[in-house]
Amino acid sequence: MRPLRESLAAKLLAAQLLVIVAGAATLALVALAVAPGLFHGHVRDALGLVPDDVSRHLDEAFRDSVLLSLAVAVGAALAAAGAVSVFVALRIVRPVRTLAAAATRIAQGRYGERVPVGGSDELALLATAFNDMALSLESSEQRRRELLSDVAHELRTPLATIDGYLEGVADGVVPSDGDTLAVLRAETGRLKRLTEDLARVSEAEERRLSLRIEPVAPADLLAAAAEAARPSFAAKGVGLDVDDEPRLPRVAVDADRIAEVLANLLENALRHTPPGRGVVLSARRRDRALELVVADEGEGIGAEQLERVFERFYRADPGRSRERGGTGIGLTISRALVDAHGGRIRAESEGAGRGSRFVVELPAAP
Questions:
Q1: Distance CA 91, CA 93 (A)
Q2: Do 205 and 335 contact (CB within 8 A), yes or no?
Q3: In 3D, which of 316, 308, 260, 304 has the Cα closest to residue 143?
Q4: Are the beta carbons of 103 and 114 closer than 8 angstroms?
Q5: pLDDT by residue (tens digit) across 237-274?
Q6: pTM, whole model, 2 decimals?
Q7: Residue 301 to residue 268: CA distance in whole angstroms
Q8: What is the CA radius of gyration of the chain?
Q9: 3-state helix/strand/coil string of 140-182
Q10: Pairing mode, if any, of strands 214-216 and 356-363?
Q11: 132 CB contacts (<8 Å, ≥6 apart)?
């Protein structure tokens, strides 16, 4: 707690007292230096010449009345200043101290701190903004912890595999042949993909991407994405069709970044669609925007998972997804890239076993 002389309430009281003293001194100077002459002039005008003893008595009465009035006025002003200072201390200083104490605890890592909000004045707005900031910090800290935990979990399996194989080779238990080298290369490739994905999503979420925005025809985006993905779809036996409406408006995007978004969505659709079924890549107009849609006939998504699928490392089926080689961060990258373009991305599904649709909404080019 600060000393009283350093508190805001004490400073406000001192400022008010200074104003009162200056005003009282000015009033006394005027009343005692100027007012008597004016008073004498009015007495002469009203009564003419008066005896000296009467004049002296009038002067004393005038001076006493002025000093008494001045004392009463100064006393009332001092009382008002004290009351105002108390009110300020209760209404302003106390909330500010509460805010400062909460900020100190947040600086110490206690992100769950909140301050009470009352009224609708500037202090209430400040408290509301502080609580919003604290909530954001708490959410960021939670995401940071989850990210560290997820990264540690993702790194543990490939590192354990590599370490086990190297130890086996060193002990002569595991042969140093092509199969062993293939396993080691697969695991190091998995680590490389993970680090690259983490770097990309961090750049996108922190708005450190350099986007080359230009008008692009949606048909060109779909055709390029489908052409790049066809070999993988053919190898698994999953169909891939393209369906776009005629005369669609161009979109203002970085074609390479949107190609990465569509590649991630198609890879995700292929991972969750069994052989013999299909995926449709389409485009359609939606008001003043354009929607790119990747619809599959795969496993589907539960209603409680539709928002979580865009979280880092989230997997509806962790074991199966990991075996299929995904890092669990492709959809997170896609959302960050779409957000960087001023667009939105969402997942839709009617439930497990009924397929899913990922819709990318992008602004039309002027």
A1: 6
A2: no
A3: 308
A4: no
A5: 999 999 877 788 888 888 988 998 999 899 989 988 99
A6: 0.56
A7: 12
A8: 39
A9: HHHHHHHHHHHHHHHHHHHHHHHHHHHHHHHHCCCCCCHHHHH
A10: unpaired
A11: none
